[in-house]
Amino acid sequence: MSQEWSKQRFSRRVQAGAALAASLTAALVTSSPAGAQEIGEARPIENNSGPGASVRPGAYFPSRGDMGLSVDANATYGIPAEPFVIAPGARFAGYFGGNGAVTGMPVVEAMLPVGPLVPYLKAGLGIGHANGPRETSAALMGGLGLDVHISREVLLGADATWETVAATGFSTLAIGPRVGIRY
To answer: Whole-prediction pTM value?
Structure first.
């Protein structure tokens, strides 16, 4: 039984990795040459500075239980720190399924804009409520992704997030496309 569970868990992680790779490929393939920087246009740092918001629907793969639907929403403010943009803000996430959770936390993203491409790392610490064990505890989140500016204000991308709600047994990997705006 334990060996079968390990195979299923490994299979879910392989599927998650394949889905993330497909999302990143789709984001790169669908990026428009119009989003590329032209002489005299705003610099990539400026494109990622100031207020912004994003939403990531997707799938989550919990350490126990079945895959489910996840949605997270972020509101950040990008501060130039060349060559990076540091964006503190807030994040709310919901994991809907048999072993789900809801979380809210302050978050920070570190972006390294390169033309229309914006790879980033993100981290947060806040509070979460796990549905399965019905417990509330500290939530810890880390992730990475790649956004592509299709215009100065609009970006599309792919995102992978690991999150846990401490002492509840809830731990998950969530992946999906990300849509955002910077204004």
So the answer is: 0.76
